[in-house]
């Protein structure tokens, strides 16, 4: 009978032979300490990742698949899409360029004679609305940006942008009884002097005047974006994580304004009772369509980055000015409607359009702060210059032939005033932005 020692020796030999044939036996660690990189020491947001792998025992994965295949496949998918998509959202706090307006509403102190009431140039006359820039206060809005790199090397991609400033409005409204003075001033071209339409005057007329204005700016762009640096062969000094890109694409920019008047007058003269309801509107539109060219430069320092955007858009600005006016006169219970009001007459009423070639430069600065490996907080400043625009306030002609005021004198004597003519100006908008950017 064999001894226990001999049996034990035989068992160990058989076990060693079986392990050598099947691949089972002591398994080496999946990762060795030398397999880890020191990336975490360079980037506080980086994850510690092993650089080499040892295959797991046979049977741990389906037939034909090993961890040596799965890990590179996962890394390949991650590398293909990591940081190739980006999206940002910002709140805008901008100050847009206001529009000029003539004096549109006046008053005078009690006791002022009728031939001086509300007329510009007299010491008792006070301008209630107009005679200054309006719609020029700081305004809120939003801006959205996004894009995608087509290639893993991030050297060609597409991006879009949309921003919208909230509609800004200024206005005036007053209801005056027959004990106060309220007027709309204009220049009488027939008698060559300043005068005014009385909306309220003691024992003559009472009424209400409402003036509403609004201005709005918005923009959309779609562009291709390509990398210049760091693949620029040493033409510029870029850090290993810095980059400079070109952008080229389409841009649409819209600027709209409007000034509207509403009057309701009631005669206090017993011999000539009646009412007048007047409505006037001056609206302007600028619609730019063209190409944009520019550069984007981003530099990094630890967890902070700075970006500069310089671009210019070249194309056509479609200028449109619409003027309308109506008056409803009621006397002895009979109402008649007429074309024209006070500053809108048949001599300037209509839709007037033309196209102008313009160049629109824009400069932007953004400072980014890394919050996580996929989220940044941003703070920026933008300056936009839109030349050769039409504004509603610049197309109000206060030179009026009173014989045109409904009901028009027939035959008409005097000049056809007010008149329409294009009056261009320049538009600036600038301000701060605060938001965030995500990458995925």
SSE map:
Layout: H1 4-22, H2 39-42, H3 67-81, E1 85-96, E2 99-100, E3 103-108, E4 125-130, E5 133-134, E6 139-149, E7 156-165, E8 171-176, E9 182-188, E10 193-200, E11 205-229, E12 243-267, E13 275-301, E14 304-331, E15 334-339, E16 350-370, E17 375-390, E18 399-400, E19 424-439
Parallel strand pairs: 9-18
Antiparallel strand pairs: 1-6, 1-19, 2-5, 3-4, 6-7, 7-11, 8-11, 9-10, 11-12, 12-13, 13-14, 14-15, 14-16, 16-17, 17-19
Q: What would you note in describing this structure?
A:
The structure is a single chain. The chain has a single domain (82-439), classed as Beta Barrel (Lipocalin). The model is unreliable at 1-56 and 73-81 (pLDDT under 50). It is built from three helices and 19 strands. A ten-stranded antiparallel barrel has the order 1-6-7-11-12-13-14-16-17-19. It has a three-stranded mixed β-sheet with strand order 10-9-18, with no helix packed on it. The chain starts with a helix and ends with a strand. It is mainly β and 440 residues long.
């Amino acid at each position: 009978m064999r001894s226990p020692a001999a049996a034990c020796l035989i068992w160990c030999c058989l076990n060693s032979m079986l392990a050598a044939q099947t691949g089972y036996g002591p398994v080496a660690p999946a990762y060795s300490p030398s397999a880890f990189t020191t990336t975490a020491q360079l980037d506080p947001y980086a994850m510690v990742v092993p650089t080499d792998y040892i295959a797991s025992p046979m049977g741990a994965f389906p037939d034909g698949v090993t961890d040596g295949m799965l890990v590179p496949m996962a890394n390949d998918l991650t590398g293909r899409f990591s940081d190739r998509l980006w999206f940002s959202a910002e709140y805008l706090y901008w100050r847009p360029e206001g529009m000029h307006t003539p004096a549109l509403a006046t008053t005078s102190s009690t006791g002022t004679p009728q031939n001086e009431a509300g007329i510009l140039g007299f010491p008792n006359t006070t301008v209630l609305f107009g005679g200054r820039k309006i719609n020029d206060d700081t305004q809120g809005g939003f801006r959205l940006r996004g894009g995608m790199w087509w290639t893993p090397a991030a050297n060609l991609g597409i991006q879009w942008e949309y921003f919208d400033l909230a509609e800004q409005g200024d206005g005036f409204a007053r209801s005056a009884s027959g004990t106060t003075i309220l007027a709309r001033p204009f220049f009488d071209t027939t008698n060559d002097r300043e005068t005014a339409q009385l909306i309220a005057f003691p024992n003559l007329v009472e009424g209400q005047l409402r003036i509403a204005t609004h201005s709005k700016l918005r923009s959309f762009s779609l562009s291709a974006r390509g990398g210049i640096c760091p693949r620029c062969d040493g033409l510029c000094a870029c850090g290993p994580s810095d980059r400079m890109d070109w952008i080229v694409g389409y841009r649409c920019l819209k600027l709209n304004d409007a000034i509207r008047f509403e009057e309701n007058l009631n005669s206090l003269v017993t011999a000539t009772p009646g009412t007048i309801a007047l409505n006037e509107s001056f609206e302007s539109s600028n619609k730019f369509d063209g190409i944009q060219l520019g550069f984007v430069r981003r530099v990094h320092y630890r967890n902070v980055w700075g970006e500069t955007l310089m671009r210019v858009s070249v194309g056509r600005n479609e200028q449109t000015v619409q003027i309308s006016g109506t008056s409803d006169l009621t006397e002895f219970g009979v109402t008649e409607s007429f074309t024209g009001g006070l500053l809108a007459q048949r001599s300037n009423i209509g839709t007037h359009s033309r196209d102008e070639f313009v160049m629109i430069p824009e400069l932007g600065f953004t400072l980014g702060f890394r919050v996580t490996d996929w989220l940044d907080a941003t703070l920026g400043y933008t300056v936009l210059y839109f030349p050769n625009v039409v504004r509603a306030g610049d197309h109000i002609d206060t030179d009026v032939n009173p014989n045109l005021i409904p009901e028009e004198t027939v035959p008409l004597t005097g000049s056809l005033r007010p008149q329409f003519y294009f009056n261009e100006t320049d538009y600036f908008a600038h301000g701060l932005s605060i938001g965030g950017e995500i990458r995925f």
